[in-house]
């Protein structure tokens, strides 16, 4: 399956960083959080990415166009016809499609725009600002055995997110609730698996995936949930960024499930 990553938003709540670059390009340990997310998926064998660009999307394109320069030692020899020698060549088994999905397009609209790249097949999708030690294979296996259009990953909240109302079977999302401080409730963190029929629920660029499409699917019993009880952290604010950076620098990042 292909992996779709939403990387086009402006990240206004972390404007100290995002006024200079798109939020997914903000670095943790010297690497964009987008890179961290891709490494998580790659660990499970998902290496075909479609990245939905928008705000300052050219910076994401430049990063991958010069990936070797960003990730390897390089010698520039100007005395030898400007030759370039790349040392310790860093390679990834990735195929990366960078799609311009608009400056102000909403989440559902961005997915709608990349339909031609997923070729009407099931695909994985997540946001470009959160990392965790989610078992992608287990969530995909659960989705495969369900009859859901979407299976989203949920974690227990820290008190500042909208909540999910989950059926007693613990596999189906029944509805959505307002933000309350309830440690027994769950929130959507992305890391979704979607069937191509999702495109029937996406109208235009103004379509917000988390509103009418997901709410409609929940009413129809077509929205599944994979409960993740491990680590997950989004990067909404400067405080979140500092937290993730400190965890990485301590060498204890739970989301680093890959080997160097």
Structure in a nutshell:
With 260 residues, this protein is of the alpha/beta class.
Question: Can you walk me through this structure?
Answer:
- The protein has a single domain, classed as Spore Coat Polysaccharide Biosynthesis Protein SpsA, Chain A (Alpha-Beta Complex).
- The strands form 5 sheets. Strands 1, 4, 7, 8, 10, 13, 14 and 15 form an 8-stranded mixed beta sheet that branches. A two-stranded antiparallel sheet has the order 2-3.
- It has 260 residues and is α/β, with parallel strands linked by helices.
- The model has no long low-confidence stretch (mean pLDDT 90).
- It is built from 9 helices and 16 strands.
- Helices cover 27% and strands 26% of the residues.
List the helices and strands and how they pair.
Elements: E1 2-7, H1 15-18, E2 27-28, E3 31-32, H2 33-43, E4 48-53, H3 57-65, H4 67-71, E5 73-77, E6 83-87, E7 95-100, H5 107-113, H6 115-118, E8 123-127, E9 130-132, H7 136-144, E10 150-155, E11 163-166, E12 173-177, E13 187-188, E14 192-194, H8 212-219, E15 223-227, E16 232-234, H9 238-249
Parallel strand pairs: 1-4, 1-8, 4-7, 10-15
Antiparallel strand pairs: 2-3, 5-6, 8-14, 9-16, 10-13, 10-14, 11-12
